[in-house]
Amino acid sequence: MWEQIRVNKRNSVILLSTMAFCLMALGAVMGLAFGGGEGAFFGVMIATVIWLVLMVVSFSSGDQILLASSKAKLVTHEVHPQLFNVVEEMKIAANLPKMPKIYIINDPSPNAFATGRSPERASVAVTAGLLARLNRDELQGVIAHEMSHIVNRDILFITLAGVMLGSIVLMSQVFLRGMFYSSMGSTRRYSSRSSNQGGAGIVFLVIALVAAILAPIFVQILYFSLSRRREYLADAGAVRLSRYPEGLVSALEKISQNNKPLEAANKVTAPMYISNPFRGKKGVNLYSTHPPIEERIKILRHMSRGASFKDYSDSYSQTVGGASVMPASALKTVESVELRKASAHAKRKESRKKQQRQVGDIMRMVNGFAFLSCACGLKMKIPPNFKGDKVKCPRCGKVSVISKG
Are 268 and 387 in a shared domain? Predict the structure, then answer.
C-alpha cells in the first residue's frame, strides 16, 4: 500500500495547503474590513502565526488533544485483557513497529477510532459500549480497521486537518461573535469611518461576514469528502489483516443498530470514528463523514473468494459499481489471502441486560473501581475514594479485606 501512503501524503499537503489558504484569506478579508490595506496585511500575519502555532501543536501533541477532547482514558492490560490481546494480534499482522497505546471512552455508544502522528506514535480508542456488545471476532474486525488507518497514515492526515479545521472554525466564530456583540460605541466609530470611505468599508464588512460563514463550511466539505474513501480502504485492509469479513460485517451491524449519539464526539473528531458518531439521515451528502454503513456491509458480505485487496475491489465493483477505490499498485500485486472460519465463540449471544452490566463494569474499571468477589458469589464494586481496608458483603455479611496492590 505504499502508493496509498504516497497518495495520503500528497492529499494531506493539498488539503492542508487549502486550509492554510482559507485561514489566511479569512484573516486578510477580516483585516481589510476593519483596517483597509494595512489591516489586510496585519490580518494575514496574524492568520499565518496562528497557522504555524497550530501546526507545531498538532505535530507535537495533536493526538493527545483529540484523545482528551474525546474523553478517552489510557488503560492497562488488567482493565480489558481481551482488547489488549486483539490489538497485539493485529499489530503483528499489520507489521507495525510499536504497540499502539490503548484508550477506553466511557460511553455506552459503540464506536472506535485511531489517532497519532505515525505508526511509532499511534493510539487506539474504543468505547465501553463497543467492548460490551462485540464478541472477539467482531472486536478483531474493528481493531483491524483502525490498524489499517495507522498503516495507511490516515491518522496523521486526520490529526493535522482536524486541528486546522478547528482553527478556521474558531477564527470565524470569534469574528461573527465580535460582529454581533460589539459595543454600540465601537459600532458608531466604525460607521463613521465607513461613511468617510464612501461606503467601501460596508462592502468589505459584508465580504468578511460572508467569508467567515463560508470558510469553515468549505473546509468541512473537503475534509469530510476525503474521509469517505479512507473508510473503504480501511475496510479492505481490515479484511486482509483479519481474513474474516463477517467479523467486521457483524460489528458494523451492531454499531448501526445504536441510535444514541456519542456524547464526546464533535464535528472535528467525527471522521476519525469507524462509524458516524452522530444521529442523522442515512446516505451520503456533502457533510457525510462516512459512506453509508449498509453499503460497506454489502461490499464486505459479498467477499466469498478471498480477503485480498483484489477481492475487495471486485466486490466493490459488483455491488457499488464505478471506479475501484483501491490504488493501482495494490491490484497489481497477485496475492491469495484465504478466508478463515469463525472462532468457536463467535455465535455466542448475550442478553441486553448482561451487555448493559458489562458496559457499567468496564466504565467503573476505567474510573479506578476495585472489584472484589465474595465467597457467596457476589461481585462487589469498590469506588476509588473508599477509605477503609475492609468491606462487608451485603448478601452474606462476610467481611473481606481490600487488597491495596
Answer: no
Domain that holds residue 400: 369-405
Give the span between the Cα atoms of 243 and 293, in whole angstroms: 20
Q: Are residues 68 and 118 in the same domain?
A: yes
Cell matching residue 104:
477506553
What is the DSSP code (8-state) at residue 282?
S
Q: How many domains are contained in the chain?
A: 2
Q: What is the pLDDT of residue 181?
A: 63
* Residue 242 in grid coordinates: 483479519
Q: Are both 30 and 156 inside the same structural domain?
A: yes
The whole-number pLDDT of residue 90 equals 96
Q: Which residues have a catalytic role annotated?
A: 146
Q: Please provide the average confidence, as pLDDT, over all residues in the chain.
A: 80
Pairing of strands 72-74, 101-105: antiparallel
Cα–Cα distance between 214 and 367 in angstroms, integer? 41
> What confidence tier does 91 reach under pLDDT thresholds 50, 70, 90?
very high
Q: What angle do CA 83, 85, 90 make, to 5 degrees?
A: 95
Torsion angle of C-alpha atoms 29, 31, 32, 34, degrees rounded to 10 = 120
Residue 275 C-alpha from the chain's centroid: 9
- Does 288 lie in the same domain as 157? yes
Phi and psi, residue 320, nearest 5°: -105, -40
Look at residue 183 in the predicted model and tell me its pLDDT. Answer: 42
Position 184 in a domain: yes
Nearest to 291 by CA among 330, 252, 263: 252
CB 376 within 8 A of CB 394: no
Tell me, yes or no, whether 355 lies in a domain. no
Q: Which pTM was predicted?
A: 0.80
Amino acid at the residue 233? L
